[in-house]
Structure formats: C-alpha cells, structure tokens
Amino acid sequence: MLSVLRTARVRFAPAARRMAFRSFVTKYTESHEWVRIDGDTATIGVTDYAQNALGDVVYVEVPEANTEVEAEDVVGIVESVKSTSDIYSPLSGTIIEGNANVVANTKLVNKSPEADGWLFKIKFSDKEQLDALLDATKYKQLIEDGH
Amino acid sequence: MAIASIRNFGQILSRVQSHPTTYRAFSAATTGTSDCTLSRTAEQLSQLPTIGYVYLGEVPYRKALEMQKQLCRRRIDEIYALPQADRADLNLRQFSDTLILLQHPPVYTNGRRNHGKLQPDEIERLHALDCDYVETNRGGEITFHGPGQLVGYPNLYLKDHFLATKCFVKGLEYTIAETCAHFGIEAKTIPGFPGVWTSPTQKVAALGTHVQRYVTSHGFALNCTTDMKWFREIIPCGLEGKTAISLQTLMEQHGKPNCDTSVDAVLPILRKSFAKVFGCNVKPLEDVSPATFKFIQELVKL
Fold first, then answer.
1. Could you give the dihedral angle defined by the CA atoms of residues B53, B144, A85 and A80, in that order, rounded to the nearest 10 degrees?
2. Does this complex have an ipTM over 0.90?
3. CATH assignment of A24-144?
4. Beta-carbon separation of B111 and A84 below 8 A
C-alpha cells in the first residue's frame, strides 16, 4: 500500500514543483471503492480488499468520456470467476475518462488496484456527496469488522 | 472476441488430447468441499440466515430473467432503504434469500462480455435449431439450457453470508461437486476454469453469475439427463477443446445405466448439498418468506 502511494507522489512531483503545494484526499465507499479527490475531479477504482474478494479479473467495462452520471448509477462492470459485478459511481457529475489500459489489461485491477488499475475519472458536481464517503480510518475499521 | 461454432466432435477431441496444460491443471484441481467454511469464521457461521428454496418446473428463459431482474431490484430497494447500521437485521426485511430451482425450454444464452459479438448468421443458425438465443448481464460465455438440466439461481445478499464473490462462486462449485459425489462421481474445480469438471475436458455444470450491490442472480446449470447434442452446436463457455457431459452419461460410463439421474431425483440431493456447503438451513420458500414466494410465483405464472 505505502509503495503504491509513493509511486503516485513521484508521478505527480514535477507538477507539484511548478504549482503551489498540491495534495490529494482519498476517501472510500462501503462497497470498497477508493475515491482520490483533486479539486473538483475524482479518480475512482476498487480497493485492494475488493480485488482480493473478486478473484482474477478477466473483463472490465468503464464509462465513456462526457457521460453524465448520477450517484449510484452503474458505470462499469468487472468480471472475475464467471461473475460480473456492477461498479457504481459514488458521485454525480460528468465522466472525464474511463481507463482504457485496464480494459486492455484487466490484471491491472488485481496487481495495482489503487494506482494503475483506476477505473474512471469524474468531474463531480456536488461537493456535499463527498461528506458521505468514509475517510481512511473509517474504511480500515470497516475492513477489520469483516465487511 | 469472435465465437466460431464447431460441429465436428472428432476435431474437438483431437485438439484436447494434444493440450498438456489442461491435464496438469486437472491433476491440481480440488475435489469437493475441503473448505466448507468458505472463509467464514465460526462466529459468522453461527449467524447465517435461512434460505428459502422453490422449484418452479419449466419456465421460459426470458420470463425467468425478468423475474430475477425484478426480484433483485426489490431486494436492493428493501435492503438499501435501511440505514447502514440496520441492514444486517433480518427482522426489518420481508424478502429472504432464495434458491430458485427450475428448468428451461431449449435456449442458448451468452454473458455480458459477448454482447453483440455473435454474428447475425450464427444467431440465425441457432434459431433454426428451434432455439432462443439470449444475451444477459451474467459472467461467463455461451452455454445451453434445456430439458433435463437442473438450473439454479441462488438469490443471496452476500453480506448476510459474509461471502466474498470468489467464495460464493466456490460455494456453487462445491455444491455441484458434493451432488456428484452422491452418485459416486468425482467432480473437481480447476483454477482458472470456473465450472465443475469430471475430467480435464468434460464439464458437468456451467456457472455464470451477476452481483449487484451484493445481491446475486443467475447461477449454475447441472446436466442431469440433458441431450448433449445441443452443446455440439456451440463452443460451450468459449473454451475450445472442452465439452459438456451429463450425470446420465457419466453413470452409463460407470456401468450404472439404470441409476435415476433425472432432475426430480437430483434436486433434493443438490438442495442438501447447497445447505451443507453454504452452512445454512434451506427450507421451503413459502415457509421462510411468504412475501418472496408470492412475488416470484406472480412473475413466473403462465
């Protein structure tokens, strides 16, 4: 987990030097998605806990750019062990991009679920929806409680 | 991914026999129910809900699909209308988990990943066999359902069972393996090839499920006395070199041609296997949840 976060910081370091200090906030959903917030955009994927519960991922669908979505809409699908699992958007807004890499290389969801295995980016429209998400401590508690 | 059809059984067999990986994988396969807990703790196992079962007889595939869609919607609405802290309280819910058991008239169905991929002339060919072709949102690829095949659609809220998706699927595989064991047939799971196998190349049951907000739909199809001719018209589950087999054929191969492997005979055994593997009681649905029973009956009645 820590090595994943270090990779993310290295990738964004050049931009950080040009701009004022820039930080990301990562929040989580009860259905084991992570939501990395950067201003009014968010990058979303499934957590390491989720990819372990799913098993080997063999097929992924991600939303198309410029799609308008409401929170709770189905925006993608992940298939593993002959089981398709719907992926829901935790936020309302406009899809910026679906990760084409992960569609072509589905194993990224298992190998790098919280970095290269991101599923989609969204420009969200309602900041208050962020309040309903879990912070890292609450998410850790959720996992420890066996959910 | 293009789906070609191969009708020559001989071609399939010769290709299989020259494929070393499947034999190695089969020898590494696991039999039966070595992990009956499906990764649950003792405390979790003591809290599992009762599942209602219902056998619906023969139901047209599209009707059963619509019924499942509405049942899932109803269950998701009921569960998620509750505050998060109350969702585990079964007393606050009318609808129960259900093990739906049934048969279908002849139909080919395909999974989400193959939407729009079967060529029109191929679909025409399947229709010409007097067979429907339906694309669904389940996992897995193309398969056949028809008379003599026991189809099971477990409609479970996985959180009530503390089940990860991969453990749920493993539970379905173990249920089938346990059912086969009752007939003296050794059936295994093969890592990387979901389904239940009686040899490196012969699958006795197909699997394909869909999970929406932890509520499951679709499930498994166990060939009891299914006419295998239907499987020869497709590459089942998109796996070249693999074929389907029925319990009836297996019993003939074992020198027991008179053993009753009809759906009626297999059903109670499968039900008990399901209860054993999933670690919970499986009782008639009309007793467990009259509301769920009525809901399903309304949607499948002719």
1. 110
2. no
3. 2.40.50.100
4. yes
